[in-house]
Amino acid sequence: FKNISKNIHHSLLPCLPSFQALHIVILGLDCAGKTTMLYRLRFNEFVNTVPTKGFNTEKIKVSLGGSRQTASFHFWDVGGQDKLRPLWRSYTRCADGIVFVVDSVDAERIEEAKTELHKITRLAENHGVPVLVVANKQDLRNSLSLAEMESMLALGELTTTTPWHLQPACAIIGEGLQEGLEKLHVMIMKRRKMLRQQKKKT
Asked: Which GO-annotated molecular functions does the record name (predicted)?
């Protein structure tokens, strides 16, 4: 699959009205499995990927909780290499949710992942945006446990306004992705309800 390698300008990502697809940004260090996750969701099969030089984008309908209800997600999968990370901010502007993918096997880079995760959630425009942390590659024998990842990523230290959920997953076979997106959807809807109530009060 060809990567679209143009940089998106702020003005191309307007805040979407609520009836449109949810704007979800997939972030994480390079080689964490972001694009593998995207194409597993899109095609329900494993797609061999190359490092993303810019971004990949897909609109995907996801069924919720075994019911007939579905939600439309518009995913933006952004490259995780060092030089691309300053661009993340452009994509998270007006995001309904952030999916942050972490390689559970790469213990040496967990600290780097933690730094980037905390940096993006501390941005003023991302306050309150729900974060789904995907602990990818949990199927591998030497993967870190969820408790270890929660501690090493210091998830308890994310800003008090940031709702988060840590989801064990294997992007190659798709395990855990559905459950994770359901949790993310619940967090997004909860936040919308709260914002509506705040608006009424003012």
From this structure: GTP binding; GTPase activity; metal ion binding
